[in-house]
Input
Amino acid sequence: MGSKSEQKIEAVLELAILEIETIGNCQHGRPTFITNRYGNPIALRAGSKPLRKMFYQIAGSLGFRLSRRQIESVETALCDIAFASDVTLQVSLRVANLSNGSVEIYLADPERHVVRLHEGEVTILKEGAQAVFEEPATMKPLPMPSGDGDYKLFLKYMNMSNRCKSLLISWITYTLSLGKIPSSNYVLLAITGLMGSGKTSLIKMILDVVDASTIGTQLFPKSSKDLITTSQNLHLASFDNTRFISKSDSDVLAICCTGGFSSTRELYTNSGVHTNHLHLGLIVNSIHQAVTEQDLIDRSLPIEMHPMEQSARRSEKQLIAEFQAELPELYMGLLKLTAKIKAELPNATITSPERMIDFVHWLAAMENVVENSGDLQGYYSELLSNSQLETLLENPLFSAVIDLCEKNKDKVYESTPSKLLAQLTWDASSTDLRSPDWPKSASSLSKKLTSLIPALLEQSVIVELSRGKERKITLMHTELY
Output
């Protein structure tokens, strides 16, 4: 017989094992424990508050209390069992994509309801969900959908053009349909607008229907470690008042959109390496365009909000209260629309392909489902092109080449790199010449022009670099090609 403390630990551990249906490791290698005590299967992550709460409840049912150290001993024993297990558990966070094409969404309400979207229909499940969901401590319940559903109730809170409203509804339903599986490609929502346009209030509303959490909107993370923590606990993250996104941060955000890994050293070791999965939906809110790297722009949906008229302004408290009152029916409308769009995907035709082709496919299906929705694909392409142009016009070399081609629109301009650089430098301002984007040599010009070829082609300018006895650069308008 051990001490009384050890006996308590063993008693709680024994009942915990009986209550836990499956012990193993999730797809990312973390000890995970599945329980059906709530009706639908729920995954309890090692170190999570729900797992420790279960230990406290078991101890209470036995008529005694456990200290924090004793709780940690129970958890350590369970983790040892998990590490020794060969069982890999597929665990989802908020949204799951099933093999039959269905989507399940975890509401995280006290009864642990799950919403299933299948063949255009919406079903609310108290039990019988196929997916296993985890519930981080930061997760808040989504609204319980009710009524016939009307997603158009959302439109009056969107202070933007009607076409942008349609694209935003498309983005919300698209993000609601994607679980964190390798094939999921999230589109970054880049919202811009002047102060007082209602950006932050709108984002809070979006989070309330996609992934409500105690985190809410947050400042842009200072390090990749912060982003790793965010990815492990959220389906959708929002970064407020973002002024600038560096090239390295843009690369990390691009990985988050399409999924990838970041390697860090294991705790208490110098040689072990632990891989952290980066994959989640993203919203970036800024006054001016913060997404400036081409690779990230291609993965984004740029939306501009209009300044709010003085007579239309209301306090955020009043706005949120009105929104919350309509939320159950509004959410049901979004779920029904999501189910219908997903069911329509096999019949949808892509007419304006972009890099995020799955999102374009979703837009094509929405064009079929929603009457008078217009050419959503074409408008999305237009927004991307405008966003790319706005960023590139800040590049002095790009602007200089565009200006030179405009002056020589009716003829082909051919020159050596040295002569072209001399011509561009002659026309450039002193500010342009001081820019780090301005080439300082002929070879630098060739390299920088090569990186700009796709963007210049988008603006109807063809760049050809050839090599014979001497290097040549040819510039022409696409009409002359």
About this structure: Residues 4-89 form one domain. Residues 266-272 have pLDDT under 50 and may be disordered. The longest strand covers residues 20-26.
